[in-house]
Amino acid sequence: MRSIPKLRLIAFTTLILGLISSTQASDQPTGHLGKGTIWETPWYTIDSGKEGPTVIVTGGIHGNEPAGATAAEQIRHWDIDAGKLIVVPKVNRLGLTAETRWFPPERNNRPLRDLNRNFPTKENPAPRTPLATDVWKLVESTKPDYVVDLHEGFDFHIANSKSVGSSIIFAKSNERTELANAMHKAVNKTVTDKDRKIVLLSKSGAVNGSLVRACQDRLNASGFILETTFKDQPLSLRTRQHRVMVSTLFQKIGLIDQDQSHRVAPSKDASVIQIGMYDSAGATGNGIKNFNKLFNSNNQFNMTQIGPADMIPEVLNQFDVLLFPGGSGSKQGKAIGEKGRDEIRKFGEEGGGVVGVCAGAYLCSSHYTWSLNMINSAVFNETIEIPGVGRKSMWYRGKSSQVEMEFDQSAEPIFNRSDLAKVRYHNGPIVSKGKNTSLPDFTALAWFRSEVAKYEPQKGTMIDTPAIITAPYGKGRVLCISPHPESTPGLEPAILDAIKYVRPQEK
Ligand SMILES: [Zn+2]
Description:
Helix 2 crosses helix 7 and helix 5 crosses helix 7. This protein has two domains: about 230 residues, Zn peptidases (Aminopeptidase, 3-Layer(aba) Sandwich); about 230 residues, Class I glutamine amidotransferase (GATase) domain (Rossmann fold, 3-Layer(aba) Sandwich). The protein contains 13 helices and 21 strands. It starts with 5 loop residues before the first helix and ends in a 5-residue tail after the last helix. A hairpin with a 3-residue loop joins strand 14 and strand 15. It is of the alpha/beta class. The protein binds zinc ion.
């Protein structure tokens, strides 16, 4: 056989790869709405290059509904098999940043502040604000067959008719009713609480002035408003509901061949560390906020919030590192369940990194029945009878306070420091060597050099114990941080260093 010159082979391969990737999700925006304005926001095209429907997905039209924006951002990374997909993940980007429903430049203008009332109607045939004009131009020029607008409500419609939370809003037609029924069935399979089920709202369809209504009336596109509910539901669950509905719709209309509701992160890329952060039962809101802020300000990291339903290989495979934040370790462990904990261990065995902070450090330990058992650490947590006080659990040391932590000399390559620092501490585990002999010993990367104690028997038990520990687990690494660098001004980079340290190692 004649050998192909190497250079030509490379050129050929590059051409083929170029052709393949051009039809799939790209990280580069196709364009921006409001280019050069303060509300500038990117939009993306995913073109299969094959015949099929054109679909527009929008998120974040209301800035206080982050699930729609987050889900749309995830969906823009899906690979489609036919037709064309256009995604505007953060339509009202300014509103999302300000966490307000309104479009901030018009926030004091009652008739104009709600972007989803600014689109063409019979009475007002032109869009009524510059952002609505830009959205409308994009929609008109792409001539969509379907428009999917992702929202969330303040309460479950099934239990409180004042909110449209957890509903599918559409105008009846044979096709639309069939599609809505399919989405309804698929999403409700994932909802066990009957007071949180998604309902169909087709009586009056999308409200006048909304994007979906305008698309339906003026462009003859089939539109759906997909609503989840932000009350008492973590972001991971809300985005999952959006993804399940959208994936069902896409399959039905032939845009995709297979379910993609598990696709939450961009394709792996060595320049970005993909983090899955647990956000459900046992994770506190403040912790989630702090970590979001930290990762959003650094493009070396991409963080996706995940919950118990995501502890499956299809989802976990997309991450380099899993992060378990502060809150309650037992609640986290119990919510994740035995099967989920098995999957997390498998993730570690295969080389994934796991970081636990405070409650997350309890979770990683080998101490409890609900623990991940991924690092051989025992926790100082007896229940002691204190004269005149009663039986007290020793994990509790009172409200949040500052303690001194010294980075170990050996950890200099990881944290670039070996000094004494003040760090916020809030009942993180006081650890010692555990009893699981099948796990390797841990290494201390930092030490507590002062302590907090609420009860007499706690005194002297914290000082000079490890504050940060690490150990290999399978092909991966586990790292546990007892205090809270992520909410200690100036110490936040320690979290990023920890994540870099446990990320899968180059082979
Ligand atoms: Zn909304």
